[in-house]
Amino acid sequence: MFIRIATLAAALAASSLCHASTTPDGIPVAPAEFAKVRPQVEDTIRKSDRYRSLDRNERKAITDALDRMDAALSSVSSVDDLDPKQRTQLFNDQETVNHALTQAQGDTKVICTREKKVGTNFRVTQCSTVAELRAHKEAIDNDLPRIQRNWPKVEDPQ
Q: Considering the domain boundaries, does residue 15 fall inside one?
């Protein structure tokens, strides 16, 4: 499924830059194909664990970009029929969707480390997603100034 989304992204990007109706791979870029792929993209975003790290704002940005793309493509028979400004907006919207989906997929990547368990010599495997690790680091970064402010001051021995 992701390959199909990436293929569509590449096809729209290539057509926007080259002003051609097909990509170098010969994949036709037609509004009808976008109309078939869009529901699959939205369904995958809703149901796939790969995109669970997308928050409400990111999901809204993706939906808005897909709506603008659909509106631009619904009135033409080919990407070539769009004026340069519309074609640029189409390309930018596709980049927005592509970037959000690529980053969300990267956030679900699992990273495992082997660490010593406190108080023993046993090693345990700790696995977390990239998004969980980032959230943990942000929580520490946010709490550190508060902890430092509340730390008892040491009196000068002089």
A: yes
